[in-house]
Amino acid sequence: RKEVEQDPGPFNVPEGATVAFNCTYSNSASQSFFWYRQDCRKEPKLLMSVYSSGNEDGRFTAQLNRASQYISLLIRDSKLSDSATYLCVVNAGGTSYGKLTFGQGTILTVHP
Amino acid sequence: EAGVTQFPSHSVIEKGQTVTLRCDPISGHDNLYWYRRVMGKEIKFLLHFVKESKQDESGMPNNRFLAERTGGTYSTLKVQPAELEDSGVYFCASSPRPSGELFFGEGSRLTVL
After folding, report:
1. A38-54 burial, b if ≥16 CB within 10 A, otherwise e?
2. Largest CA distance in chain A
3. A38, A61, B10, B88: which could form a disulfide with A44 (CB 3.0–4.6 Å)?
């Protein structure tokens, strides 16, 4: 079983749609959680951190359920520029605080 | 402010040869990381420097890989001798403190023939 699992997609949605991505992680001791975005042949960029209370940044909402070891990302009012691969990322913390574990990524394509 | 820069952007070598990848982190970032993505797989951690010290090198695949960060500024990752399975994109990242909020470089694509 992979440490971080994501639905690879691809998700193809029209502009203006709402889309949700899910992610599960296997290490119950994981300390911190993130969503990164990666455009084709570019570097990953931090989209947002994910907190237990849930957090929102404009059209993006992230949720964490520690009991179920489940992370989600909701994108509202999708834009063409949201097309990218979304990476679910987990940090074990403790002595491994510098080590991130990545999911394989979920591909999103937003079309006109 | 300059971001994380990596060189070369693409390297094509033959099996058995040596390649050295370089990373210049964001100025003032003590934490420097190497990750890689091989074809069809997820991005995987290789190692973490704090200044010039190796904090965690648990992800280094074998002793053909050598990472250094002399002086705590730029870092190099040497693969010697390269094997076919080493092909992939090698990402460097840096951060001012240990966290999951990393700034990545654009990566060095390595192709071993």
Report:
1. beeeebbebbbbbeeee
2. 46
3. A38
Confidence of residue A54 (pLDDT cuts 50, 70, 90): confident
Mean pLDDT of A42-55: 92
> CA of B79 to nearest chain A CA: how many angstroms apart?
21
Residues on chain A bordering chain B, Cβ-to-Cβ distance under 8 angstroms = 2, 4, 32-34, 42-46, 49, 87, 89, 91, 95-105
Query: Is residue B100 very low, low, confident or very high in pLDDT (cuts 50, 70, 90)?
Result: confident
Phi, psi angle pair for B103, to nearest 5°: -110, 115
Do B102 and A42 lie within an 8 Å CB cutoff?
Answer: no
pLDDT number for residue A96: 65
* Mean pLDDT on A79-91: 96
Amino acid A95: pLDDT = 62
User: Shortest CB distance from A104 goes to which of B42, B98, B105?
Assistant: B42
Q: B107 and A103 in contact by Cβ < 8 A?
A: no
Tokens of A74: 């909701």
Structure tokens at A41: 């042949």
Beta pairing partners, A4: A25
Distance CA B11, CA B20 (A): 9
